[in-house]
Amino acid sequence: MFSVVRVARDLTITRVKDAVGKKKELRGFEVDDAAREHVREAGFEEYFFHRTGHSIGTEVHGSGANMDNLETHDERKVIPWTCFSVEPGIYLPEFGVRLEVDVFVGDREARVTGEVQDKLVLI
User: Is 111 helix (H, G, I), strand (E, B) or coil?
Assistant: First the structure.
């Protein structure tokens, strides 16, 4: 299950980097779809019941596009000089797995800020 969430995170980051690098329009729901499609194909769709991410402002949650095609189908554009989280998660009745990174979108590139978790940490 950890590997499913990790791949969903990585596919989402790749989707954003590709769109920004090609200067293609990208909306919040499309970012969510990148993660959600992989989780669905892996058979965990019913356990992925949270949006993939949210915009980040000066007070954590921002007022920009959320990476959401579950709770709200966010059609707002991902625009340059904004930041948002990518945090796919699968939540079984017994336990859950969630990975989070923050992504900054510049004029010509998107990049992950901070450390990227690639190993399971039990808490």
Answer: strand
Taken in order 47, 123, 117, 62, is the CA torsion positive or negative? positive
**Centroid of chain to Cα 2:** 15
pLDDT band at 64 (very low <50, low <70, confident <90, very high): confident
The superfamily in CATH containing domain 2-113 is Creatinase/methionine aminopeptidase superfamily (3.90.230.10)
Residue 35 region, left (φ>0) first, then alpha (ψ -120 to 50), else beta?
alpha
**DSSP state, residue 58:** T
Which structure tokens are listed for 9? Answer: 């995170």
The predicted model scores a pTM of 0.92
Q: How many CB atoms lie within 10 A of CB 61?
A: 12
The model's pLDDT over 99-122, given as tens digits with 9 standing for 90+, comes to 999 999 999 999 999 889 888 877
Residues 12-35 pLDDT 10s: 999 999 999 999 999 999 999 999
CA dist 38 and 32 (Å) reads: 10
